[in-house]
Design a protein that fits this description.
nine-stranded mixed sheet; Immunoglobulin-like; about 700 residues; Rossmann fold; 39 strands; disordered N terminus
């Protein structure tokens, strides 16, 4: 009897399996035929339209390149518009930089167009200028509260006026909208910002990001699709309950090598001290030194916008500046910016440490990024000493810990770890939160120090939630972030390290792994300057940002901005250098005059207030305070935007305005399909998009 039952079950399973295979084939064939029919129909419709200006037809939105305007055609496809130029001019004067980014687009169609595009800027950029140029006419942008600026822009768009709106989505992601581009016309948008040069001992650097890498968007979709435009829209992801602005930070992506959106970049470098060497880490440049010591540096021709540009210069050892002081008097207020390099202190004690490595193995790390991560991990394992304990946590859309808890760095344990690292592969989503929480909450009782090294490209959209998690569970640990790849998320890297009371660095090529990791482990092995405070005269009242000065590590400068009705002549900076008390006096009246100081002060205040807004339930009074500071200093922020409007309407009332969107290049070294593997909602979007296209096509055939 038992044999009969087993046989019956076996037969039923085989029959069920056969039916599944049969119906799967039928459904797959039906979908394939439907998509093929749709493509054939669209091709026929395009060929039949003999009056349309001959432009390259884009069948899928992801086939558009970064910085390229595309115009939606009546048949649902997009007509590609050529990008005329992207020009970047960077002027470095000592430790301050002024950057101008100009992008020129054209409309070769016979329709009026609106363009929407997403682009990156440095996470510390203070954006304070926007201008729109049409022919010889220049319209200067004005700073407004975000809702008001949007209202002004929409009204101008509806009335036929040329207008531009610049909005901040993240400190390093911005959206620009351009309305009423006339047929055959060109518009140039110019954005300007100020930025601090990064210093690490005798090395100085400046990064210019060129591409918004695809972000992983966790959470449930929070809006319903009502029409096809919501599938493609201006981003490939829909807003979710965890990332409410997902559609604003996920520009469509073009896959494969592309020469679209060529970027020309020039740097005028006036270092303010004798320079020993100048290096462009990832691009070939021409370097011309002038008689006054200034250098003109430019790219060797245009490059595709698919990886960050980084320029590094070193001071001759005897001329390395140990301090910089700038001041400004504006609106009856004194501003000062102090940049000070604390003295070195070598750590002679052999303190045991618990080292936790977190490595991102999600789909966005595929290609060169995972190779860099493996190399960095192997180097890190080699630096461990017998008294150290360690563990490795790997994550994508799942989680894996090498050991149940941190183990001593014995030869056997290290061999197991090296085998584990060599087998690491990249695939799946980017669920950072479980990995971070596991690393932060698995602390062992030890007399040593606990350090967490987080290797990732940071391609996530839920940064705020991760910052809150770090702040909540940090304890006595210190978090160090290592940005991996050609276009890491600098906002996440820098702020996560600040919340983790650690430091951050970047690895953009496998050839620089040893140098960057060696510098990082040098910081890990030496005490931080902690408990830093300002000692002021008794009658002094001033506003200092950041409010709490973070810990500093070997080679990192202290940077603080001040404002008061009248600043004192001198202040004293105090702290603990390891176990030793340290202090120094700064003469504020000796600073060099600079018109940028008040802007940097405001930018730092906004960043600190945004931390309060994030951690205090998004209070309206904090939001108003951020907007007020940004308005007073003409800065783009989360709650303020720049808007430029030409006063005279140019589009005829009976002329239709068509909207379009932009795509980004795939970051260099990434190996991914048409949609980012790190985006779980993107697959659903694609399926729904195909379904809607199929329904629309069937209705169209039925109507015909």
């Amino acid at each position: 009897m038992a044999i009969t039952i087993k046989s019956s079950v076996k037969n039923n399973l085989l029959i069920s399996l056969g039916r599944c295979v049969f119906y799967s084939c039928i459904i797959g064939l039906a979908i394939s035929l439907a998509i093929a029919s749709l493509i054939i129909f669209a091709s026929s419709a395009q060929a039949a339209d003999g009056e349309e200006i001959k432009l390259e037809t884009v069948r899928h939105f992801n086939d558009v390149s970064s910085g390229q305007l595309v115009f939606r055609h009546d048949d649902g496809h997009y007509l590609a518009s050529p990008n005329l130029a992207t020009d970047v001019e960077i002027k470095v004067n000592g430790l301050l930089a002024r950057v101008q980014v100009s992008q020129t687009f054209t409309n070769p169609t016979d329709s009026w167009q609106e363009g929407i595009y997403v682009f990156p800027l440095p996470e510390t950029a203070a954006v304070d200028h926007l201008q729109m140029k049409v022919g010889e006419r220049i319209i200067i942008g004005e700073i407004k509260r975000k809702a008001e600026a949007k209202k002004i822009y929409e009204a101008a768009k509806a009335s036929g006026k040329r207008a531009t709106l610049l909005e901040q989505q993240r400190p390093n992601i911005f959206t620009s909208s351009v309305a009423n581009i006339a047929p055959g016309d060109s518009i140039t948008i110019t954005i300007e910002y100020q930025q601090m040069v990064t210093q690490n001992e005798d090395e100085f650097s400046l990064r210019f990001p060129m591409v918004v890498a695809p972000r992983y968007i966790p959470g449930k979709i929070s809006n319903q699709i009502e029409d096809l435009s919501e599938v493609n829209g201006s981003g490939w992801a829909m807003n979710t309950d965890q990332v409410s602005d997902a559609s604003q930070i996920t520009p469509p992506v073009v896959v494969g090598e592309s020469d679209h959106n060529p970027v020309n970049l020039k740097v005028m470098l006036a270092a303010g001290f004798p320079v020993d060497s100048v290096i462009s880490r990832y691009h070939e440049v021409e370097n011309i030194e002038l008689k006054d010591g200034t250098r003109n540096i430019s790219l060797m021709g245009a490059v595709p916008a698919n990886r960050d540009f980084e320029l590094v210069w070193k001071a001759k050892p005897q001329f390395t500046p140990q301090a910089a002081l700038f001041k400004q008097r504006k609106n009856n207020q004194d501003y000062a910016m102090v940049m000070l390099m604390p003295p070195k202190q070598m750590n002679t004690q052999s303190i045991a440490r618990e080292m936790i490595f977190i490595v991102d193995t999600s789909g966005s790390m595929d290609g060169t990024s995972i190779k860099q991560a493996r190399s960095a991990l192997l180097y890190g394992l080699d630096q461990l000493r017998p008294q150290d304990s360690f563990n490795i946590i790997r994550f994508s859309d799942d989680l894996e810990s090498l050991f149940e808890h941190a183990l001593l760095a014995t030869d056997d344990n290290l061999d197991i770890a090296r085998d584990f690292v060599n087998w690491l592969r990249a695939a799946g989503g980017t669920e950072m939160a479980p990995a971070l929480k596991l690393a932060l909450t698995s602390e062992q009782k030890t007399k040593g120090i606990r350090q967490i090294m987080f290797l990732t490209d940071g391609s996530v959209g839920n940064e705020d939630a991760l910052f809150n998690l770090i702040k909540q569970h940090l304890g006595t640990s210190r978090l160090f972030t290592v940005g991996i790849g050609s276009a890491p998320n600098s906002h996440f890297m820098q702020r996560a390290a600040e919340y983790g009371r650690g430091s951050h660095s970047y690895i953009g090529a496998e050839s620089e792994v040893r140098q960057k990791m060696q510098a990082l482990f040098t910081k890990l092995a030496h005490p931080a300057v902690t408990n830093i405070t300002l000692d002021l005269p008794a009658d002094t009242v001033l506003e200092q940002w950041p409010r709490v000065i973070p810990d500093l590590y070997l080679g990192e400068p202290l940077l603080v901005t001040l404002r008061a009705d009248n600043l004192p002549d001198n202040i004293t900076i105090k702290g603990m250098l390891g176990t030793t008390q340290w202090q120094t006096k700064v003469a504020l009246h000796m600073g060099a005059e600079s018109d940028s100081v008040s802007t940097f002060w405001a930018r730092r205040k906004i960043a600190s207030l945004m931390d309060d807004y994030r951690t205090q339930n998004q209070r309206e009074d904090i939001k108003d305070a951020i907007a007020n500071v940004a308005l007073a200093h003409h800065l783009v922020s989360k709650f303020t935007s720049l808007v430029a409007v030409e006063q005279t309407p140019v589009r005829p009332k009976d002329a239709e305005l068509k909207s379009n969107a932009i795509a980004s290049n795939m970051p260099a070294g990434w190996k991914m399909g048409q949609l980012p593997q790190t985006a779980t909602p993107a697959t659903l979007q694609l399926i729904m998009g195909f379904f809607l296209l199929l329904v629309m096509q069937l209705l169209r055939w039925r109507k015909a």
